[in-house]
Amino acid sequence: MPVGKRIYLKRNMPDPDIVKGFMDIPASNTADCMERNCAMHPRIKLMSNPDHEMVGPAFTVHTRAGDNLAIYAALRYCQAGDIIVIDDEGDNTRSLIGEVMMSYLRDQKKIAGIVIDGPIRDIDNLQNWKLPIYARSTTPGGPYKEGPGELNVPVACGNVSVNPGDIILGDSDGVICIPRKDAAEILPKAQAFHKKDDEKAIAFSKGEVDLSWVDKSLKNKGFDIIDDVYRP
Predict the structure, then answer these.
(1) Residue 138 confidence (pLDDT)
(2) pTM for this structure?
(3) Is 54 inside any structural domain?
(4) Is residue 227 part of a domain?
(5) Residues marked as binding for Mg(2+)?
(6) Which residues define the annotated binding site?
């Protein structure tokens, strides 16, 4: 089996009930329950106009820089509800996918979203779609179709490691990856954090908050509080 030209048809999949549990939790709340160490680089931006969060199991694609043959293979093998996660080896010069391929993924394959660490094109139309589309940039320049490439292998997307079957969660803030093996432990923490965060926002809005801890922290960290204007 040649490394670089492998297509794995099976994945270890997450519990569907756990995936569903993350649907109403902001990505930021879940990220805060994961030591804030799971968010993809902000170069990956929301390019469409969905009316819901993106959540589902990762179907990973590793392409040669600027080549989309492996993405065409993903069109054949991905499943409804998948989130396609594409590692483009850092390339930002050639679009990997446009409206034609996206239409097939949305209407025929019924994917839950797509995350591309690389460019797309046809943004005039795609920006209005309800399908969650995250990408690095746009360019009219098209890709090669030569390979190599791999499906359902570990990839790096937005400086985050993603394994096939990990849970991908995205909203207007960006995208995070929840490791499949840790998801059952993270979910109740994220649910509790979300509830507490809503209560905290209401308290801050009403001014019902104790910020004395800030003064203590500043003092402990050696900040000088100077009751005067700055003088060069």
Answers:
(1) 97
(2) 0.91
(3) yes
(4) no
(5) 122
(6) 98-101, 121-122
